[in-house]
């Protein structure tokens, strides 16, 4: 296993195997120590993880398999559901069953998670439906947003800390519905409310920012910005991250020709 230490631009070769066979390797801070842990999502929907407890070497971390009730062969999301600064786990399987678990020292040590809530199988379970995460109401907890058919914002489930409440809104707001567009949910202006970033992956490079005003949840389409950035940039080379750690998410583009990274720092929009 090979890891990159971005603080020192160092490549670390780890003398152990994890997540072999072309499975999906992900990262999340499961224990709230500000270090990214490794999570493996296998083709059958099973999940295992290594806690980063020894300076990023993972040599002493014991691999834990999450119990079989958490089958994530459709969607696996990490985020702080209850505001304790630990990434919790949200899973959706092919039958549309969604369950989530709050991480703590006990279940992280054993891998035995208890499903806190089961959602109706009809919620965001279409073939093209996409479950996304973001803090929609500014309370510091991750909520779930349904991008139905990858075309409409249809509804959202709001975290109360111990469960997800009923749908916050029910609407058919067309967002990022063209075939060559993809949607990201990020807090662009640093106000604590998740915004929408709609990116075209064609020659236009059209990038749209729709801001989330408290209590309106994207319904005010006048609160938006549109500009040209990262032409031909698709989901694999366009990113939204806080590059300079100033609390504002920035736009990052890896060009396909020059193989260079272009970024906009401190994007207030």
From TrEMBL:
Q: Which Pfam families match?
A: FG-GAP_3
- Keywords assigned by UniProt? Signal
UniProt-listed InterPro entries: FG-GAP, Integrin_alpha_N
The answer, when asked if Signal is one of the entry's keywords, is yes
**Residues forming coiled coils:** none
The name under which this protein is listed is VCBS repeat-containing protein
Species of the source: Clytia hemisphaerica
Q: What is the lineage of its organism?
A: Eukaryota, Metazoa, Cnidaria, Hydrozoa, Hydroidolina
